[in-house]
Amino acid sequence: MASTDITLHQDVHHTHDAHDTDHDHHDQHWLFKYIFSQDHKVIAKQFLITGIIWAFIGGALSSIFRIQLGWPQATVAWLEPILGKWVEGGKLSTEFYLAMVTMHGTIMVFFVLTAGLSGTFSNLLIPLQIGARDMASGFMNMLSYWFFFLSSVIMFLSLFLETGPASAGWTIYPPLSALPQAISGSGAGMTMWIAAMAFFIISSLLGSINYITTVINLRTVGMSMTKLPLTIWAFFLTAVLGVLSFPVLLSCVLLLIFDRSFGTSFYLSEIYVGGEALANVGGSPILFQHLFWFLGHPEVYIVILPGFGIVSEIIATNARKPIFGYRAMIGSMLGISLLSFIVWAHHMFVSGMNPFLGSVFMFLTLIIAVPSAVKVFNWLATLWRGNIVFTVPMLFSIGFVSLFISGGLTGIILGNSALDIKFHNTYFVVAHFHLVMASSAFFGMFAGVYHWYPKMFGRMMDEKLGYVHFWLTFLGVYFTFMPMHYVGIAGFPRRYYSYTSFDMFNTMGNIQMFISVSAIIAWLGQFIFAFNFVYSMFRGRRAPQNPWRSNTLEWTTPVQGIHGNWPGAIPAVYRWPYDYSKPGAEDDFIPQHIPYAQTPSSNLPHEKNLP
Amino acid sequence: MITLAIILSLALLGFILYLLFRIQVLSSIFRGSYKKTVSTSNRVNGILFVLFLILGMGAFFWSFGVVKKDFMQPVASVHGQWIDELFWTTMIIIGIVFVITQVLLFYYSYRYQYKDNQKAYYYPHNNKLEVIWTMIPAVVMAVLVFSGWKAWTKITNPAPADAVVVEILGKQFNWLVRYPGRDNELGLVKHTLIDASNEFGYDVRDKKSMDDIVAPSEFHIPKGKAVLFKIRSRDVIHDVWQPNWNVNMHAVPGMPTRFWFVPTKTTAEMATETGNPDFKYEIACSQICGQGHFAMRIVVIVDEPEDYNEWLAAQKPFSETGAELFAKAMETPAPIVSAEKEVKTEEVKAAL
After folding, report:
1. Mean pLDDT (chain B, rounded)
2. Looking at beta carbons, which residues of chain B come within 8 Å of A395?
3. Percent of chain A beyond pLDDT 90?
C-alpha cells in the first residue's frame, strides 16, 4: 500500500516540477526517515550495519575458540575481564567452548550471511536495478528489518545468560538441545535461541515475499525477465528458496518446543539422563534431522546464491565484457535452486537412516556439481580476452571464484556417501563449507559492499585500504582453511575442546597453531574494512554518478539517493545489462536504458529493427 | 600497568597506521591517480595474482608432502581400504580440475588486465561450449557416483551371519560394551531399569542375559573376521568413530544402529607398522554430545582369532558378574510387571 502511495505521489509531483523531489523528504520526521524508514535504501543500510556488527561478534567468538585449539596448554586468564566466569582457573570452560562454537555458526549462517547479505543487497538492488520506486510493500519491508532486529536482540542477550547460550551446535540436534540435564546451554539459552529464530523466520518471510512480489510486478517498461541483471535473478531465487524452506524450520523448532516444555515425544525416546529415566517413548531424533536439513540445505544456497549474482555482475562490469552464457547462468541457478531441495539427507549418511536413502541422496547430490561447474566455466570464459580493471570489488569477485572452486571440489568427496563415512563430522567438512559457503559468501558480500557503496553513501571507499583488506583476507582465508583439510584427513572430529585425550590425535599441533594464527590475523584484518567503511561514509571521495561505468539502471539515479529513486519518470529498458565492449560502439559500455535506435553503429543484425 | 602500556601502544600503532593512510590519500590526490580509469595498482594486483598462484600452489603441494605422514592414518579394515582408494582416486580427479581452473582464473586475470588500447572481445555465448562443459562434469560425476554407490552398497549390506557381535552403548561421556555370550543373543534391556548397578538396564528375567559378557574391563575383537557393532545410545546422540577402520555411525537414543567391518591388522601389527609400541585402537565420539564430548574414548584391542577366543573364554558371564542383580530380581517382582507393560507398548509402536 505504502509504496503505491509513493509511486502516485512521486509521479504527480514530477509532471509539475522535476526538482521538487527532496521536498517531502524533509517533511519526514527523522524517526521515520532513519529508524522506522520504509525506504528500501535505508532498510538495506540497516541490514548491512547490523550484519557487520554481528560478523565482528561471530569472528571474535571464533578467534577465542581458535586460541583454545591452537594453544590447548596455554592459560587464558587475560580473557577473564571479558568472559568472566567462563574462564575457570585460567582455562576456558568446556561448556562455554561449545556455546561459542554454536553461536559462531548460528550468527554467521543466519544473522550475517542470510540477513546481512540478502537483506542488504536484495533491498538495495531490487528496486534500483529493475526500475521501481520502492519495494512492493514498504511497510512489510520495514517490519522485516525490525523483526530481524528483535531477533538479534534476543540472540545477543542469550550470550549473557548464567547458564550460557545455546550450546548444542548450530544444528541443535535433539535430544541434546531438548534436555537441560544434558548440557546447561539447553536451558534458557536454547529457549531464547528458538524465540530468536522464530522472529528471524518471520523477518525472512516478510522480506522474501516482498522481494518476489517486487521482481514479478514492478519491473520498468521493457525489463523482461530475460533482461534482468543476474543479481536480480539470484536474489529472486534466493527469496523463493527462503519462502519454501524457512517455514519448515519453524515447524521443526515448534515440535522441539513441545518436546522441551510440554512433555511430547516427537524427537525423544528411551532416554536415561541425569540419573533418571524419562517417560518419553516413540520419538525419533532422525525426524528432527530431516526437518532441519530440509531448511538447512537450501539455506546454504540462500547464502551463496546472492554471491553468484553479485559476482557475475561485477566480473562482467570490470572485465568490460558481457557475462558469458547469460541464459546458462540463469539456467544453472534455476537448476541449483531446484536441486537444493532434494539433497538434504547427504548431511545424514551415517545418522542411522536407511542406506538405500543414502544411495538416492548421493546420486542427487553429485548432480548439483554440474550446474556449479557450468557457473565456474562461464566466469572463466568471461575473464578470457577481457579488459580487466582490478577494482576492489573485482578482486573480491575473483577471490570468490577461487574460493568457490577450492571449496566446491571437496564437496564431490563429501557428497559421496561411501567417502562420507571417512569424513562425516571431521575437520574436512569444516574446511569444505567454510571455503565454499562461508568465505565465498563473505567475499561476495565484500565485493557487493565495495561496488555499491557509492550507491549507498554517495562516496567511494578508499581503494588502497581495500587492496590491503583484500590481500590480507584472501591469504588469511586460504591459510586458515587449506591446512584444515589435513586435520580432517587425519580424522580429527569437529567441536572438540582439545585433542589431548587421544593418542591418535596427538599430531597436528603445529598445523592447529598455524590455522589459529591465520584465522586471528584474518579477523583482525577486518578492522581495516570497518575503518574504511565508517571513514568513507564521512570523508570518502565523492562518488561520480556511474563510477564503474556500468550498464545497470541503479547508476542512472542521482548520486545522493532520493525517495522514489528517480527524480523524473523511471527510465525504460531496451537491452540486456551486459553490452560491454560491443563492436562498433564508441564507448566500452551501453547502459540498459539506451535505445537501439541511438546506437546504429553497434547493433547486431537481429537488433536493427528494435526500438 | 601492563594493561595500560598495551592500550597505549595499541593506540600509538593505530595512530601511525592512520597517518600512513592519510599520507597515502593526500599523495594520490596530489598525483591525480584517482582520475584515471586504472592506476599502477592494476598492474600490481595482476602481478600479485600470478605470484599468489605460483607461491600458493607451491605452498599447497609442499605442505601436503610435508604433513602427509601425519595425516595418513594407517588403514586397518577391508572396507577402509576401498574407501581410501576411492578417496585418493577422487582426489586426483578434483586435483586436476583444481589446478586447471585456478591456473586459468589467475592467468586470465593477469593476461587480460586493462590496457588503454585494448578492447574486450564481445563474446556473449557459445552453445556448443556450454553443452561440452555441461557434459564433461556430468560424465565424470556419473563415474564417481557409480563407484561410490558400489562401495556404499557393499559396506552397508547386512553383516554375515557369523559376524562377531558387540554392542556399544554411548552415554555422557563414555562407551559401554557388552557381548552376547554363547547363545549369541543379547539380553533384553530397558532404559527405565537403568541405575548405577545396572548401567545397561538389564531385565534379568530374560534368560538370554545370563551368558552375556557385560562391560568387560577390556574390549577385544578378532582380526580377519566380520565384526558387527550394534550401536545404541541411552541419552543424547553420539557417534562411534574410528579412523583406522573408517567406522562411523551415529548412536541414536531409541533407535539402534549398526556398522560391520573386517579388521585386518592386530594391535600388535599396528604397533610394528606405525613404529609406536604403545599403539592403541581408540574409538572417539564425533557427534557433539555435551561438555565431555572431546574425551569420550574407549580402547579396542584387535587380537589374532585364537587370542580373541582365549580372552573371550576367560570372561565371566553376566550371571556371575551381575549376580546381585539376579538375586534382587528374585526378591522383588515389582519391576517385572512394569517391564512387561513396557514390552507391550514397544510392540504396539513397532506395529504402527
Report:
1. 89
2. 45
3. 85
Mutation for testing the B interface, residue in A267, A360, A367, A387 having most B CBs under 10 Å: A387
Asked if the structure places residue B87 within a domain, the reply is: no
Confidence of residue A139 (pLDDT cuts 50, 70, 90): very high
Structural contact between residues B278 and B260, judged by C-beta atoms closer than 8 angstroms: no
Say if residue A424 is in the same domain as residue A344: no
Residue of B nearest to A468 (CA): B45
**What is the structure's pLDDT at A19?**
44
Of B48, B90, B108, the CB nearest to A412: B90
Same domain membership, residue A396 and residue A489:
yes
* The pLDDT value given to residue B344: 43
Set of chain A residues whose Cβ sits within 8 Å of the Cβ of B346: 281
Closest CA to A171 of A294, A258, A299, A289: A289
Answer yes or no: is pLDDT of B117 > 90.
no
Task: Pick the residue of B16, B119, B244 with the most A CBs within 10 A to test the interface with A by mutation.
Answer: B119
Residue A381 is predicted with a pLDDT of 96
* Shortest CA gap A255–chain B (Å): 17
- Domain of residue A373, residue span: 225-268+283-381
User: Is B88 a residue whose pLDDT tops 80?
Assistant: yes
Residues A492 and A371 in one domain: no
Tell me which H or E stretch contains A462. none
Q: In the 8-state DSSP scheme, what is residue B185?
A: -
Quick one: A76 and A170 in the same domain? yes
Measured in angstroms, the CA of A491 and the nearest CA of chain B are apart by: 6
Q: What is the DSSP string of A205-251?
A: HHHHHHHHHHHHH-PPTT--GGGS-HHHHHHHHHHHHHHHHHHHHHH
Helix axes A2-16, A138-158, angle to 10 degrees: 130
Q: Is B263 helix (H, G, I), strand (E, B) or coil?
A: strand
The number of domains in chain B is 1
User: Tell me, what CATH number does B311's domain have?
Assistant: 2.60.40.420
Residues A259 and A398 in one domain: no
Q: What is the residue-averaged pLDDT of chain A?
A: 92
Domain membership of residue B218 (yes or no) is yes
Distance CA B51, CA A479 (A): 15
Q: pLDDT tens digits, residue range A171-220?
A: 999 999 999 999 999 999 999 999 999 999 999 999 999 999 999 999 99
Question: pLDDT-derived band of residue B334, with 50, 70 and 90 as boundaries?
Answer: low
Pair A248, A348 in one domain: yes
Element (H, E) at B334: helix B334-351
